[in-house]
Write a structure and sequence with these properties.
- It contains five helices and 25 strands.
- About 20% of the residues lie in helices and about 40% in strands.
- The chain has a nine-stranded antiparallel beta sheet, with no helix packed on it. The protein has an eight-stranded antiparallel barrel with strand order 10-11-12-14-15-16-17-18.
- It has three domains: about 20-115, Lipocalin (Beta Barrel), CATH 2.40.128.120; about 135-225, Quinohemoprotein amine dehydrogenase alpha subunit, domain 2 (Lipocalin, Beta Barrel), CATH 2.40.128; about 250-405, Glutaredoxin (3-Layer(aba) Sandwich).
- The chain starts with a helix and ends with a helix.
- The radius of gyration is 24 Å and the shape is globular.
- By secondary structure, it is of the alpha+beta class.
């Protein structure tokens, strides 16, 4: 009887210990996440936990599938696909409390998520106008050095607003928000960037502030202009006088130096993609290139990616490149052109034949003779709607023409 009692006690103690060591997991369902931009502003986004190791992040028409979810004791680590940034949070009764972290940039943004909330923004007032249409936009309008132009493209249904801003270097991807009375609020979170726009709207003007995480902000103004267009993205970057061809030599993940002089690229149409694994517009472009390459790589066609990485070590940079290739299924070479900085000035120094590197991504079109035929700055991704369709049509027509020469 004494031995039986001792056995019962031991079973009880072991079961208690196992229960205590069992990590907490995310509740299945919808969460409203809040990133603290400053003491008075929280940037919201919505995500849904499908299972303890899978969730989806929502931005307008975009759904980001996340399957890198790790538990440690009472905490969870959520790593969106491809990008370096991750969420580290303690699991609480109400949801999550922690931070969004980008280690290599030494950036930390306080984060919390409330379980059961489904609305990105609460609205109190009926929208006073409709922002649907085209807006001629200027960011940092009072600064001669920081000022740049953009094209706002929005759709509105009742209070809900979706759309994006196109700039000379790319777009701000899928923005989602509301018009509450005359207050416009738009946000997006893709794992690499947290963007938040707050503005006051009249029928013909928008004035507000743009926040990128908690480290950067700038004012912006906009006016209705249905005919507004940005400068041609094919004329912003070009070969400097005295240069006729592209030339470079950078390592691949195996340490092999790769250049356009290699046998693989001779007598072929080649696209050189200036990009970074941290860049959302580059991600959109890479997804498009993957399919085009798959359908055309047997037609004397090649793509070379040149990655400019801000991560601090070569080893980490190559790890990020490999992660991108594995997650997307990239079948063309991606070379490490630079690490420790994503500076466009430094990128231009690596490619001195270019007048400037204005944007990640930048795409260089090279014909079968090795001549540069076109250089396209930026990328109009799926969030730009008709512009994305227009780009793909122009791209395919131009490349097919080069392949037929």
């Amino acid at each position: 009887m004494k031995h039986l009692s001792l056995l019962v006690v031991l079973i009880f103690l072991v079961s208690c210990k196992l229960e205590k060591e069992q990590p907490k997991t995310l509740q299945i369902g919808t969460y409203k996440a809040l990133l603290k931009i400053n003491d008075s502003i929280d940037m919201p986004f919505i995500f849904e936990v499908l299972s303890i190791d899978k969730l989806q992040i929502f931005n307008g028409d975009e759904i980001i599938e996340v399957d890198e979810v790790i538990y440690r004791n009472d905490s969870v680590f959520i790593n969106p696909p491809v990008f370096e940034g991750y969420i580290a949070a303690k699991i609480t009764e109400k949801g999550l409390e922690g931070n969004y972290i980008k280690d290599d940039l030494n950036r930390t943004v306080p984060f919390k998520a409330i379980f059961g909330e489904t609305e990105r923004f609460e609205t109190v007032n009926k929208a006073k106008t409709d922002v649907s249409g085209i807006w001629e936009t200027t960011f940092s309008p009072n600064s001669e050095t920081d000022k740049y132009i953009a094209k706002g493209i929005f759709k509105q249904e009742n209070n809900k607003v979706t759309g994006t801003f196109r700039t000379l270097t790319g777009d701000y991807r899928f923005l989602e928000g509301v018009l509450d009375g005359n207050q416009l609020k738009l946000s997006t979170f893709d794992g690499a960037h947290a963007y938040f726009f707050i503005a006051t709207v009249t029928d013909s003007t928008i004035q507000g502030m743009f926040y990128s995480g908690n480290h950067y902000k700038e004012p912006f103004t906009a006016k209705r202009n249905e005919s507004f267009e940005l400068p041609d993205a094919n004329n912003l970057t070009y070969l400097k006088d005295g240069y006729e061809k592209m030339s470079f030599s950078f390592p691949d993940e195996k340490g092999h130096m790769v250049s356009l002089e290699d046998e693989r690229f001779k007598n072929k149409v080649v696209l050189v993609q200036i990009m970074g694994t941290w860049c959302p517009n580059c991600l959109d472009e890479s997804k498009y290139f993957i399919e085009f390459y798959k359908n055309n790589k047997d037609k004397d066609f090649e793509i070379i990616g040149l990655a400019f990485e801000y991560t601090k070590t070569e080893e980490k940079a190559f790890a990020n490149i490999q992660r991108l290739k594995d997650r997307l299924g990239i079948d063309y070479p991606v070379l490490l052109a630079q690490y420790g900085s994503s500076s466009k000035v430094s990128a231009q120094e690596k490619l001195p034949m270019l007048n400037q590197v204005l944007s990640y991504p930048t795409t260089i079109f090279i014909d079968k003779t090795g001549a540069v035929r076109k250089i396209h700055t930026g990328f109009n991704g799926p969030a730009t709607g008709e512009k994305y369709t227009e780009f793909t049509r122009e791209f395919e027509g131009f490349v097919n023409g080069l392949m037929e020469e």
